[in-house]
Structures are given as C-alpha cells and as structure tokens.
Amino acid sequence: MNPQHLFDEQQRWFNSTAGQYLRAKEQALYDRAVVDLFGFNALQMGCLQMDLLSNSRIPNRFISTEWYVPKMSCHMCCSDEFLPFAEQSLDVLLLPHRLEFSQRPHQTLREAERVLVHEGHLLISGFNPMSSWGVAAGLNRLFSNNRTYPWNGQFIGLLRMKDWLALMGFEIISVEMTCSVPPFEKVTWCNYFSFMDKFCAAMLGGVYFIVAKKRVTGLTPLKPNWKSAPLATHLIPRPSQKDVNLE
C-alpha cells in the first residue's frame, strides 16, 4: 500500500473522537514516565501524531518511521526490525503501538534489546485485546470491510507481552491500563461513558502501558550466611614468645 495513503489513514483516525481520546490518555502516561528517565539518546518509533518525548530531559531525542512521506515531521525512516544504531547506544526507546503492527514483533523486541544500554528503559503502549477496543477490532474483522488503522493490527495480550519481555531479558517496572471508554465515534457517547476511566481502568483498559528495564546479565554476588557460620565463642590463646622453649 502507498505510504502516503497509510499515513493519511492513520492521521484521519487520530483526528477522530476515539483517536483524540487515546492521544490525550497516552500522552499523559508518557509525559509522566519519561520525565524521570535520564541519559543521552532517546528514540520514539512511530505514532508521529504524538510527541511522546516532549517532556523528556534527555538532550538527544529522535522520532523515526518505517516509511517515507513528504513533509512528515520525523528524523529518520527505518525498519523497526533492523535499526540503524550501534549496540547499547540508546538510553530510552519508545514503542507506541509498534508491535501489534510489526510483521515480526519478536525481531522488533530483539532490536530494542540490542540498541538499549544496560539499565536502559523500554516503554510500550499496545491495544488490549481483552477490552472493548479488542472487541471492536474483532467485530470489524468479522462483519465489516473496515481494515483500516487501528483495527487491522494484531493486538497482543498483556500476559503474552510480559512473557516476551521476560524472555528478552527485560524487567517489568510498571504496568498501567488506560482508555476504558469504548472507542465511540460520537463525542456525546464518549462523554457519557467517561465515568469508566475512574472505575474500570484496571479491568477494561483498551490500552496497556509498560515501562521495562534492560537487565544487566553477569555474575551475581553471593552474600555470606552469617547464621550458618557463627563466630567461635571460645578463643584459643596464641603462645607468647616467653612460652616458646628455645633449644
């Protein structure tokens, strides 16, 4: 498909009622997370409609996309499966809705692990298939010819995502759910169900947000077991020079 058409399709959805709702919720999550992450280089992959590194204090911040579109506000175009970065060169990497639209999400995670420094942070937001958003995607696939963004993605469950991250050597720092209101296209319906954001986020969130850290593999220091080897209570006196019988 034409890259310009893909970008325009994505742009139209992000400008819709559901898209604007998602943008506001996710922007708040990323803003709160990146402000406390430090380093020299940070990269946001995809979702050009949101500047998710705007609240970061890292000096070198980049945005990439997988296809080139004229007049598009990004720094580079590259495949998320083969990033043009050296090993351990990024301190923070953002994957907003990249894995569910990646042809090889495992390879995307492997690249993320490769380019991140030790103790570097990986931030992921993805659509939750066990939510009203996941139901909407399923209904679109079954009963509609609507194969447009975001319903044409392969939504990945939160538990599976956690397993993948653990397999790649990442430690889960935090997980949050957001976008509990179903993806309505009418503002009145979205406002009517806004109460769900307060009471249903933990169960019915349409989007999960993960902050993970790249673990450092190596030797694990062993702590002495003082209880199993207590100090001797009876000291043995050392002989003095006077006690030595010189012959």
UniProtKB/TrEMBL annotation:
<dbReference type="InterPro" id="IPR013216">
    <property type="entry name" value="Methyltransf_11"/>
</dbReference>
<keyword id="KW-0808">Transferase</keyword>
<feature type="domain" description="Methyltransferase type 11">
    <location>
        <begin position="77"/>
        <end position="124"/>
    </location>
</feature>
<dbReference type="Pfam" id="PF08241">
    <property type="entry name" value="Methyltransf_11"/>
</dbReference>
<keyword id="KW-0489">Methyltransferase</keyword>
<protein>
    <submittedName>
        <fullName>Methyltransferase domain protein</fullName>
    </submittedName>
</protein>
<dbReference type="GO" id="GO:0032259">
    <property type="term" value="P:methylation"/>
</dbReference>
<dbReference type="GO" id="GO:0008757">
    <property type="term" value="F:S-adenosylmethionine-dependent methyltransferase activity"/>
</dbReference>
<dbReference type="InterPro" id="IPR029063">
    <property type="entry name" value="SAM-dependent_MTases_sf"/>
</dbReference>
